[in-house]
Amino acid sequence: MAQQNKDTNELIKVRRQKLADLQAAGKNPFEIMKYDVTHHSKEIKDNFEELEGKEVAVAGRLMFKRVMGKASFCNVQDLQGGIQAYVARDEIGVESYQDFKKMDIGDIVGIKGKVFATKTGEKSIHAEEVILLSKSLKPLPEKFHGLTDTDTRYRQRYVDLIMNEESKEVFIKRSKIISKIRSYLDGQGFMEVETPMLVSNAGGASARPFETHYNALSEDVKLRISLELYLKRLIVGGLEKVYEIGRVFRNEGVDTRHNPEFTLMELYQAYTDYHGMMDLTENLYRYLAEEVCGGTKIQYKDFEIDLGKPFERITMVDAVKKYSGVDFKEIKTLEEARAAAEEHHVEYEERHKRGDILNLFFEEFVEDKLIQPTFVMDHPVEISPLTKRKPEDPDYVERFEFFMNGWEMANAYSELNDPIDQRERFKAQEELLAQGDEEANTTDEDFLNALEIGMPPTGGIGFGIDRMVMLLTNSTAIRDVLLFPTMKSMGAAKNEANNAAQSAPAKSVATFTATSDMAEKIDFSNVEVEPLFKDMVDFDTFSKSDFRAVKVKECEAVPKSKKLLKFVLDDGSGVDRVILSGIHDYYEPEFLVGKTLLAITNLPPRKMMGIDSCGMIISATHLVEGREGLNVLILDDKIPAGAKLY
């Protein structure tokens, strides 16, 4: 690693010197204001017969260069792809050719010339002019290896887009998906609107909001968690079909399907109900699949999902009975629901009512079975504070969630427009808030005032755009479809850990060095027993324990937990080890897969613990939450699993 950094620094010095030489010669590329591009790469290739022999001008990033004396080949990458250029000294001039030979991979260039095909049939440009438009001062990753580290890809999306064509295609397709959504809804007579992001009352969903302070008004405000309540105000105002595509913010954990800020689309239509929303959803998804994917059958990982067939429609009660065998039509009381939960090992809380427990059964036994498009209808009233009750069965509401691939893709209601009932629902939510439910709604008096003015019967729905894009682009994680996903600041963890180390009281310290089977010595001179574990591990036991390198074979978030990660580890024994660790606040599972970590492997009773970069134990087989500012110690991946450290 040290040699690699040294080589990179040398390359940067060389590039900066080249820039200085250009500036001294009056050829500063950063003084160029514009370049007239006439065509893009794919456009030239697709229209080769028409453009052959004609002059074109392209611009893009130099991705390949092969110099062969008086003539050279290069490849320029633009938005649509790449195209080859033939650059000859006799054609562009001796001085320009010398400048071209000094150009680096990653430089932005403009090339003007005639379209032709090489002897091998490669559609190319015979350059008449090559201009350096911008100097790249840092080298790109090697083309052969590309940019494969997921953490770097997310943090440096600009490099990811350059090096990984499939990543760029995902975001081009994302833009097309959103464009087609707008096209479809506009064709159905919907009006696109915008509503506030900073609100005094963040309602419309069950989620914990981000809070901030508005200096000018000297008032605490929240970032919206939903679009619902303002859009309904517009229905009250007489705008019969409205929608918004916008960012919402929820102060919750991050995993492969959740990001604290994400794109939500909500739409509301007067004079219809949740059946109307089902029809709209089915038609919209079918339209998007045809327009974006070229057909109604889409592939996601191992599953083929058929959007051409009528979507299944099933009630939550029937779905739970189908997949768990428990019939909630026969369960009338809270006591009976609790007994069923205990019998089927479904965990519930004291505050949970019968409807909450039904939903827990659904999450436990049903969700991951819903691969093909499915509308799950008629949810219990306890989990649906903004929805109309079913007149024939007031314990349930006219609500559906739309599922594909085991994911919730949309949530829709026959919207509650009874202001008296709505006030009672808000009151119930306030009670939950008082009991410690940080995701419960609070009463929104202005929204209640709007309902008292009068809102017509209305159907409403919310779509998670990011999950929609994941499914339609066959992307594994939500961060793969967000250009700039939320990441912990690069320096934050390091600074917090350093501060913790500096402020920590002096403790017993043991020094560890690598055994002979290690490629290099590793200094663990700062390893200490954290006070959190003083009662569990005396220092003598700790110092006699085996410190080994372990490889993370698999890592995933524990369902229904915001903090726990489940690891499958290779400790060199040939038998996989499975542990839980409460460090999800600090690491994403996909980042840790394939990493080599430091572990302690012989602490009775056969516990395995991770160590942070300051040498403090932070996680164990038992549920031990991560501590603020602490990080898992990630070792050089060249160290083999099972390598003993002492």
How does this structure look, described?
- By secondary structure, the chain is α+β, with helices and mostly antiparallel strands.
- 31% of the residues lie in helices and 27% in strands.
- Strands 6, 10, 11, 14, 15, 16, 17, 18 and 19 form a 9-stranded mixed beta sheet that branches. Strands 20, 21, 22, 23, 24, 25, 26 and 27 form an 8-stranded antiparallel beta sheet that branches. Strands 1-2-3-5-4 form a 5-stranded mixed β-barrel.
- The chain starts with a helix and ends with a strand.
- The relative contact order is 0.07.
The radius of gyration computed from the alpha-carbon positions, rounded to a whole number of angstroms, is 30 Å
Number of DSSP-assigned strands: 27
Give the CA-CA distance, first to last residue: 23 Å
Helix-and-strand structural type: alpha+beta
